[in-house]
Amino acid sequence: MDLTEPLAPDAPAAPHSASGERMELHDLAGIAPPARAAGPGRRWMPRRVVATPAAYDHPHGLRIMRRLAERGLEVERLSGNRLTGVRGETDRETYARAKSTLAIVVSPPSRRTLQPIAPSADWRVDLAEGCPAHCQYCYLAGSLSGPPVTRVYADLDDILEGLTAYAGTAKRRPEEGTTFEASCYTDPLALDHLTGSWQRAVEFFGAWDENVQLRWTTKFAGVDDFLALPHAGRTRVRFSVNCLSVTTRFEGGTVRLEDRLAALRRLALAGYPVGLTIAPIMALPDWQEHYGLLLDEVAHAVDGVPGLDLTAELITHRFTPGSKDVLTSWYPRTQLEMDESSRDRKHGKFGAVKYVYPRATMTALRTWFEQELATRIPSCRILYWT
Ligand code: SF4
User: Fold this and answer.
1) Over pLDDT 90: what percentage of the chain?
2) Where is this region: Disordered (predicted)?
């Protein structure tokens, strides 16, 4: 496989925001491992690390290699941009090998032109592509186009410098400045202990004296290295949260909800603007009770934080015909409800079909979340509902 080929298509897309309209679908039937139960907090360690020759020409590529060496990980220098030895005897083995491989590469030049990323931010900026976790509803599932090796970008310094041209282009929520979403095709805290890329991005935005904001969302909790960074309040870290019956059943390889909320509290105490990405909201039996417990846990986590700046992004579960095919082939025993007959069929902005909850369910969910957030966590601002 050619590591310069992006995993996800270069077309504008919003997979992690779950808006899903531009998801280009590829058939990955049969190449995913079975579902895994969500485990306790832990940090991903790849089994194999490779680097393209071009990655050695970039200071950040060398920084990543030093960081990996300190963790006892050996980096294999490739002779070109092609990665061999990923294919296994079966598709499943290929998938498992790819998911445990980290590649240090230079980002595709097309990524220098940023794409809008509604509704999360004005612009999408990629520092990596791929994720070692196994969420059974993963929005990336329909967007990947080959063995999902996680690629981290060696040309980080150039990527960050390139952002300066976009200052002053805020359209989405002007009060937050020009916003840059850095978790569209990856989970930052799943990888930052291996790359330091998001730490550098936080420092870059901290020193960038403009009305700008870096944003990302995560299901991990490794925030120790971020607490003392000079962030200047220009990075909003959101934690992707859900009720326990979703996090424990459908979010394999991520960290526990309580660890995410503890990490949110620590960042908030360190002065970061923080947020909740409540996604995907599922209309499970007794959903009010399940989500009520979640909101109470959040309220407890942010209790007494001075100057708390907390937002919520509320995203209901939806699927497309293609993403359903991919996900049910990746996770054949999944209990995830994807029943077209119980959903409303909608056409996204670009004509793609998606299945969302019926209008009455959507209204009930939305009304409940708006009321209960206002009651249980009054300081929390809702940024959008979808
Ligand atoms: S954390 Fe889960 S949903 Fe997010 S990219 Fe990784 S596997 Fe997908």
Assistant:
1) 69
2) 1-21
Contact 24, 11 (CB under 8 A): yes
**Strands 212-218 and 178-181, how do they pair?**
parallel
- What is the pLDDT at residue 142? 66
Mean pLDDT estimate for the chain: 89
Distance between CA atoms of residues 302 and 323, nearest Å: 35
Phi then psi dihedrals of residue 241, to 5 deg: -130, 165
Provide CATH code, domain 48-385. Answer: 3.80.30.30
Domain boundaries, the chain: 48-385
Taking the C-alpha atoms of residue 130 and residue 148, their distance in angstroms, rounded to an integer, is: 6
CA of residue 345 relative to chain centroid, distance: 26
Using the structure block, give the residue that is written with the tokens 């990947």.
144
Pocket test for ligand 1, best of 138, 151, 218 (most atoms within 8 A of CB): 138
Amino acid identity of residue 178, one-letter, is: T
Least confident range from 4-8, 33-37, 279-283: namely: 33-37
Please report which confidence band the pLDDT of residue 332 belongs to, taking 50, 70 and 90 as the band edges.
Answer: confident
**How many A from CA of 133 to the centre of ligand 1?**
6
Q: How far is the CA of 210 from the centre of ligand 1 (A)?
A: 31
Q: How far is CA 259 from CA 190, 227, 301, in A?
A: 13, 16, 10
Residue 241 and residue 278: Cα distance in Å, rounded?
5
Cβ neighbours of residue 174 closer than 8 Å, sequence gap 6 or more: none
Cβ atoms of 236 and 275 within 8 Å: the answer is yes
User: Which residues sit with their C-beta closer than 6 Å to ligand 1?
Assistant: 131, 133-135, 138, 140, 187, 219, 254
| Sole residue written with tokens 């002053």 | 168
In terms of average pLDDT, the best of 32-41, 242-251, 325-334 is 242-251
> Per residue in 216-247, pLDDT tens?
999 999 999 999 999 999 999 999 999 999 99
Residue nearest to atom 3 of ligand 1 (CA): 138
CA dist 339 and 306 (Å) reads 44
